[in-house]
Write a structure and sequence with these properties.
By secondary structure, this protein is an alpha+beta fold. It contains 8 helices and 21 strands. The two termini are about 30 Å apart. The protein binds (6S)-5,6,7,8-tetrahydrofolate (THG). (6S)-5,6,7,8-tetrahydrofolate binds next to loops.
Length: about 375
């Protein structure tokens, strides 16, 4: 693929950290929720090696928040997701599928309550704000729905605890996985959660107020010099190894949560959008699988690579990368039921020609 120059415009939003990200040497950008997201710094493989051995600071401001507050906020959130929220603790983050009336995936955000009287829906790449506003209007709910000035900054990697403790104090070490706590910084406070789009461990700081972004960024880099802290970003290789799903890549509006392996999150007991449709679609005919592909260089994914058994369509690979650690091309595939058994071998049509594909029991890491 030839890549011509990217034309910045006001509608492709910069973040509170963009100046620092550029000073740190970002080498590729992508766009997510109409906002810039770094895609690489040194190289995909060098970034990967560093993420797995040290600590990185990620500008994931593009994980925008849909804030819902007001008397009907809880009712709206329960209508919004098939997931049962009854056991969600006050300090818990919940991964929640969001579907339309046909059970089609609209987004796969993380939901949390930063305060007793408001919700944040930390969204993947689709215009969920409009859907939530539409639901609120259509149902006549007494809520306020808006996108607040909140920009998540992720600190990921095996040394994330040490770096975060230097900036926020040892109390941060006690935050459990997918729990959050409000912690002081520079005369304000941020919701800090043990979460993030990697399997290397770490935190997400929900930076409330753009003016606090660069001071926090600078504090993390100042405190982490001897830890070899670097600017990083969600890493394709690492996230495919870990089987973290990417909305728009691995699943879309035409897929149900069951097809995405998110059936365990369709357990709500009350009324929610898509309930009847999902009940009728709980036995999917295709599902996401870990797939390895032969070869040592991963071609561009393009619109996806078709999986075949002979002449029969067997599915599509939607994300792929060469994994230095597992010495194979790791990939995410949406595989037809007939062919999804672990151990199945298929052929796959890549831009570089046909390769062998192998269905795995589970993701690598
Ligand atoms: N953090 C926050 N917001 C986000 C993301 C994030 N918004 C966009 C996108 N990522 C949403 N999608 C995901 C996908 C996976 C996870 C989180 C958000 C994730 N999954 C864990 C896993 O797969 O191991 C565990 C989820 C669970 O079982 O509860 O972390 O990353 N703020």
């Amino acid at each position: 693929m030839t890549m011509t120059q990217f034309a910045p415009a006001r509608r492709t939003r910069r973040t509170p950290f963009s100046d620092a990200v550029e000073a740190a040497g970002v080498s590729a950008y992508s766009v997510y929720n109409r906002m810039l997201i770094p895609a690489a710094f040194r190289s995909l493989e060098e970034d990967y090696r560093h993420l797995k051995s040290a600590v990185q600071v990620w500008d994931v401001s593009c994980e925008r928040q849909v804030e819902v507050s007001g008397p009907d906020a809880d009712r709206l959130i329960r209508l919004l997701t098939p997931r049962n929220l009854d056991r969600m603790a006050d300090d818990q983050c919940f991964y929640v599928p969001v579907v339309n009336a046909e059970g089609g995936m609209l987004n796969d955000p993380v939901a949390l309550r930063p305060d007793e009287d408001r919700w944040w829906i930390s969204i993947a790449d689709s215009d969920l704000l409009l859907w939530v506003m539409g639901l609120a209007t259509g149902r006549g709910f007494d809520v306020k729905v808006h996108e607040p000035d909140v920009s998540p900054l992720a600190v990921q990697g095996p040394k994330a605890d040490d770096l975060m403790a230097r900036v926020f104090g040892d109390v941060v070490r006690d935050v459990r996985f997918f729990r959050h706590k409000r912690l002081e910084f520079g005369g304000t406070s941020f919701v800090v959660a043990r979460s993030g789009y990697s399997k290397q461990g770490g935190f997400e700081i929900y930076v409330e107020g753009s003016e606090h972004g660069l001071p926090l960024w600078n504090a993390l880099f100042e405190a982490g010099k001897d830890l070899d802290v670097r600017a990083g970003c969600p890493n394709l290789i690492e996230r495919v190894e870990g089987g973290m799903l990417s909305y728009g890549n691995d699943m879309r509006i035409e897929n149900t949560p069951y097809e995405c392996g998110l059936g365990k999150f369709c357990n709500g007991t009350g009324d929610y959008i898509g309930k009847a449709a999902l009940a009728a679609k709980s036995n999917p005919q295709r599902q996401i699988r870990a797939v390895s592909v032969s070869g040592t260089t991963a071609p561009r994914i393009g619109t996806g690579w078709t999986l075949r058994n002979g002449d029969t369509f067997a599915g599509r690979i939607t994300s792929a990368a060469w994994s230095p650690d597992f010495e194979t091309i790791v990939s995410v595939g949406m595989v037809e039921a007939e062919f999804w058994a672990p151990g199945t071998t298929l052929s796959v049509e890549t831009p570089d020609g046909p390769r062998e594909a192998f269905i795995h029991e589970a993701f690598w890491a």
